[in-house]
DNA sequence: TATGAATGAGCATTCATTCAT
DNA sequence: AATGAATGAATGCTCATTCAT
């Protein structure tokens, strides 16, 4: 049922989705949802929490594996697309509503996550530059933004049953980006 | 006043923005807006139309100038960031609300524009592959999506008074992407 | 369980009390109450009926004992405070919800009881005036109201485990009403 | 319009009154009320605040006039009935909803007022006992409660266009309480 | 041009009630 | 006897929109 809510929020937008629409999609009446959830807000909350927890588990495993900058970068990209594969609707919601939701104390963890996310990517990129594996003439702050935007926005068009698998998309993205930022 | 509306819609989201908030920002009362606009919908409509018209004028000029694939690509990227500079709020709105608005016949032009947009970029990329200037082992459909997403989402964080100018951001983006997709 | 319902209704108000709260207090789940009661309404109904039946039994015994006006008055006051002692929550509910409930045909007996109540007290007071034991310059209709209100509203603050017993409160009240608070 | 709301709340009970009913009584539609009030809560809030402010102005004037205990008592009773005459619906609401509303921080002033009210009456009664004008064998705490309940509950049945004026009711009440109903 | 009072449809949420288990 | 999932009507409230002034 959480998955149902996530899908509806993702496709219609959180604010524009009515509780009745979620209930319809879940095969019940409006009021019945409230037996399972406290509020509309707590639905997104749970959707986003579950997604972020899972995403960080994957990221933390990568960080813990002690790869060099370039392979860490590749692994993070790959994990990102795999996370999109597992949590597509949640990622779409995160992408679209995060900024607005974060103004609510209840969703402070969104800002925390974002901060940690930025620190993680910048650290990999800066390490790569220092190790001489990434070009030094690029603004890593910009590269971070470009990468972040492209990867997560992919959730908007990715279909798990589409022509390209998450791993293949990741491979192509890395091919595009890596051969650009790697010194030749 | 249109600019005011665009800014409010961009920062709060179209659906979440109340007409009163737009009126406040414009220094008048809720009902007064209706002397200037038919409806909330016609406000976004005008915001988006103006933006798209201007964007296509710029793109058409590039296409008309008869450059080769690689320089066309560079010019389109540059024009995109310049368009963001001129129409940042409109681009944000376009990015966030387009999909939802497009279900309304009134906004059919959004879908048309998107289709034309896709055709234009694919044509440049495919021509580049054919001319041997872009790598042949990449999926141009994917490259198109990656590029589109990254460029337009930049409107979410770009500040015209920020550290980096639109042209500098464009330059960095091209450096990243081009050296990746260009044959070596 | 009826006592539980009465207490909850008395403390939170009938309209503001949810069936779930009554169930909670009775140590069961919301739906389970309906094995014991037809409806929320039938709970108050039974609470009030039991209370009124008991109260009238006490009053009728007083009336039947053939005392003079002054002693009948004293006895009725005493019985009223004893009834409060036995049915405090029910009296509170009666006091607060009676007027509203009485619009419902099912609770017509509330209006009947009130009418009979008024007749009984007026008869005692008027008899006392006629017998010369109560002052003739008083409006017995008013005295009735003052007495009724004070006695029954005492249910709002009376505690059976408090400093003063029901009989002591009755004694003080009679002292005040019968002889006044001014020293003579 | 505030008066309309007060009347509806008083007759149907705050919790049982719907915003639509208030609007009906005010000759408008449900949503229209919100142009004038923030919420249902702020309606009662204003009704009660206005009433309490006015009541305390009257009481304070009595206290300031430096009468002896007995005349202060009489004046306070008289002012109470006059306040009921001016603010009948508000007094009814205060009487019925006070306890429940007071759990809300917004209505903390209800508890404050009640505390001050109690202190004022007890001070008058105790002073009377000390001055020897009121009987010493009475529990002033009880007398306070009896008086408070009777006076304010009168708002439930008092009609400004009824047979008896507020001052006449006050006179009768004082006669009863001060000197008793028994002939001497 | 602008105001402000009102509209009315729509929303999230509550809650008495039902019912299969 | 009791559970727990569901119902659906009703509620407080929001907001785009209208319109007389």
TrEMBL record, chains A, B, C, D:
Residues 1-55 form the HTH tetR-type domain. Keywords: DNA-binding, Repressor, Transcription, Transcription regulation. It holds the Pfam family TetR_C_24. The keyword Secreted does not apply. Residues 18-37 bind DNA. GO terms for molecular function: DNA-binding transcription factor activity; transcription cis-regulatory region binding. It comes from the Bacteria. This is Putative transcriptional regulator TetR family protein.
């Amino acid at each position: 049922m959480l998955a149902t809510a996530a899908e509806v929020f993702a496709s219609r937008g959180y604010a524009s989705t009515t509780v009745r629409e979620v209930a319809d999609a879940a095969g019940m009446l409006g009021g019945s949802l409230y037996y399972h959830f406290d509020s509309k807000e707590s639905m997104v909350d749970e959707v986003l929490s579950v997604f972020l927890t899972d995403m960080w588990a994957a990221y933390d495993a990568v960080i813990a594996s002690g790869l060099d900058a370039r392979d860490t970068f590749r692994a993070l990209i790959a994990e990102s697309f795999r996370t999109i594969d597992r949590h597509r609707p949640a990622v779409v919601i995160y992408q679209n509503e995060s900024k607005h939701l974060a103004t609510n104390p209840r969703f402070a963890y969104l800002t925390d996550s974002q901060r940690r996310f930025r620190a993680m990517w910048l650290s990999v990129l800066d390490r790569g530059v220092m190790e001489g594996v990434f070009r030094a003439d690029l603004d890593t702050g910009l590269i971070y933004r470009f990468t972040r935007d492209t990867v997560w926005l992919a959730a908007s068009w990715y279909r798990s049953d589409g022509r390209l698998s998450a791993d293949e998309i990741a491979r192509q993205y890395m091919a595009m980006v890596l051969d650009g930022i790697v010194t030749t």
